Amino acid sequence: MEFSFEKYGQQLLLLLESSLPRILGALLILGIGWWLSNQAVRLMFRAMSRSKTDTGLVTFISSLAKVLLKMIVCITAAAQLGMNVGSIIAAIGAAGLTIGLAVKDNMANIACGAQIIFTKPFRVGDYILFEETEGTVERIETMFTTLRTFDNKEVVIPNAKITSGVIVNYSAMATRRLDLKYTVAYDEDLGKVKSLLGNLAGRNSMVLDSPAPLVVVGEHGENGITVEVRAWCKTDDYLTLYFDMQEKVKLAFDEAGIRIPHNQLDVHVKPEE
Question: Which of 3, 9, 73, 177 has the maximum number of C-beta atoms within 10 A of its C-beta?
Fold first, then answer.
């Protein structure tokens, strides 16, 4: 049997001519659908942001919607080429199950991301402590939560890990108590020290009147007496009040002549016989 290039070339050309509209249609669907999916996600993000929806929920839904919309575009383009969509969906489902078993940690991250969104142990903008890392929550996405530390570092934590640990949320309450400790010498006038600290706390505009600031003797140490100041403030003022009080107490102690004891070592030299 002789092989005819002309015959098979004509058949291939006819096949391409008959399939060309479908190929062009699939490419058109893919291109326009990809662009429209990006625009839809942007519009969804803006709409939810304007409606004052929780920022963590906005970022989580946006990232999830982006993946789902692009999957729909790809399936629609495949249908345009004449492929069996039902078989494609079944294959995707089977592949998804296989991949899910292989990457179960990633699936756990997605589930835990949804758990964070709905249970709200923290929100975007909250200042939290997780293990030895603390910072402001920047994003809550499908698989990761991103923190920005005080010195402007970005820390990415898997959602499954952050939901399985202990989280301290410093922003959860509107007010916080600031605890300050100062050690003074044993021979200082304790009443004078307490009065001075109480006046400093009472006159500070960031200290709340209720509950009223409290000045108490904390402990008797090796080098002096520890006096504690417990003052309530708005959560946003916590660090500002801390630094402000530290400076003002030092200046006030210097002006009043109140001595802060230092660790000291007395050495006794035994004379030679």
Answer: 73
Nearest CA-CA partner of 219 in 227, 207, 208, 211:
227
What confidence score (pLDDT) does residue 26 get?
Answer: 73
pTM given for the model: 0.60
Q: Give the length of the chain.
A: 273
Residue 262, CA distances (Å) to 128, 181, 191, 219 in order:
35, 15, 21, 16
Q: Which residues touch 89 (CB under 8 Å, ≥6 apart)? A: 75
Give me the pLDDT at residue 215, please: 95
Locate tokens 């790809």: which residue?
Answer: 74
Confidence of residue 216 (pLDDT cuts 50, 70, 90): very high
pLDDT band per the 50, 70, 90 thresholds, residue 56: low
Query: What is the H or E stretch that residue 97 is in?
Result: helix 85-102
Name residues whose C-beta falls within 8 Å of residue 90's C-beta, 6 or more positions apart in sequence.
none
Residue 63 falls in which region: left (phi positive, over 0), alpha (psi -120 to 50) or beta:
alpha
Q: Report which of 213, 214, 223 is spatially closest to residue 183, judged by C-alpha positions.
A: 223
Both tokens of 13, joined, read: 């050309």
Q: Calculate the average pLDDT of the chain.
A: 81
More confident residue, 18 or 197: 197
Which pLDDT does position 3 carry in this prediction? Answer: 46
- Cα 248 to Cα 146, 224, 233, 242, distances in angstroms: 36, 21, 17, 10
